[in-house]
Amino acid sequence: MSDAELAAAATARFREAFGAEPDGVWAAPGRVNLIGEHVDYAGGLSLPIALMHSTAVAVRARTDDRLRLRSHLGAWDGAVDEVAPGEPSGWPAYLAGVVWAMRRAGLCDSRFGADVAVVSAVPVGAGLSSSAALECALAIAVADLVGAPTDEAGRGALAAACVGAENEIALAPTGGMDQAIALCGKEGHALLVDSGDGTVAPVPLDLAASGLAVLVIDTRAPHRLVDGRYAERRRSVEEAAASLGVTTLRRATDADLVRLEDSVPRRRARHVVTEIERVRETLRLLASGDICDIGPLLTASHVSLRDDFEVSCPELDNAVDSALAAGAHGARMTGGGFGGSAIALVDDRDVDRVAMEVLSNARTRGLVAPAFLRLGTGGVAARRLVPVM
Ligand code: ADP
Ligand code: MG
User: Which Gene3D superfamilies does the annotation name (predicted)?
Assistant: First the structure.
């Protein structure tokens, strides 16, 4: 969907729900992570790219602390005062939580409320971060409506509020990478997200100029980040750091790993330590010019996530193995795992052929048919689509 189509769809949903015009429409993109997976909560480095697919919110401010939320998933009415951990549950938590967290951070006052209608072009629950796209679209909307800063520092504060909404209200224990790219991404760039010190830096990534594309393979296998397995992996990484006597695994080295006696914590930690090193190597290769040289690092990342971190699944392995067999330079699962999406770095002219190979192998193996998205040079950060009327 183009920006204009997305804005029109969100405005139409708003009019139908509330019988009035919104103050404006704002949007934020989904993402894929090029490399640096399951390291954000270990103070590590990630390199996400924004999708060209965004989530839009049409919003009208209120002055009575009420929220009226509408999406394709339903309707929710309530008050910001009633928002608490797990309350509301389900999709409204991602929106109500943002206003709650912005109020707590002093970014909007206690009277702020809003009518909100959501339309998304980001596949939901596909590991492409529809949750952060939703949060960040609303955060930028509220900031614009109340006059909170939206410069670089302001966006950092908004990203922190969105993480608070997701962790504390939606109760999804995710790191901060998704919100950083949704709010701070730049067209034609990946974003280096340093979860150790919270800084971000754009990294030029002109895929088209190199005759390359990123093929996104949405396996459509079930994907549930809010279940216990993500939290269990996160806990095991934190426990490994504690038993090595470091604040985060960012500070551990290969040599430290032998000090972890049990094989499971050692493999979990080995994934984190080697993955952070693969991100550093990716940055070195991108700086020296030839993007397709990073292919083997992407594939090594997948092997580590599959064998050491154990967060892959047959659908993701099929996507990666089939893409490589069809000539991809590299491929890996992206996002939290256990379903969701994979990416393959492919020559532009091979995109359709690689996709067909993944699809036909999925059929042969009795797996659900995947969906495909093509990624050029990435989208832009959270922004206003339609000026305030
Ligand atoms: P991902 O972020 O990878 O898509 P998550 O499980 O983190 O997967 O987030 C998906 C959840 O976010 C959905 O189940 C829903 O609660 C909420 N969500 C995302 N997009 C929308 C949308 N357009 N409308 C309503 N809720 C949404
Ligand atoms: Mg998410």
Answer: 3.30.230.10, GHMP kinase, C-terminal domain
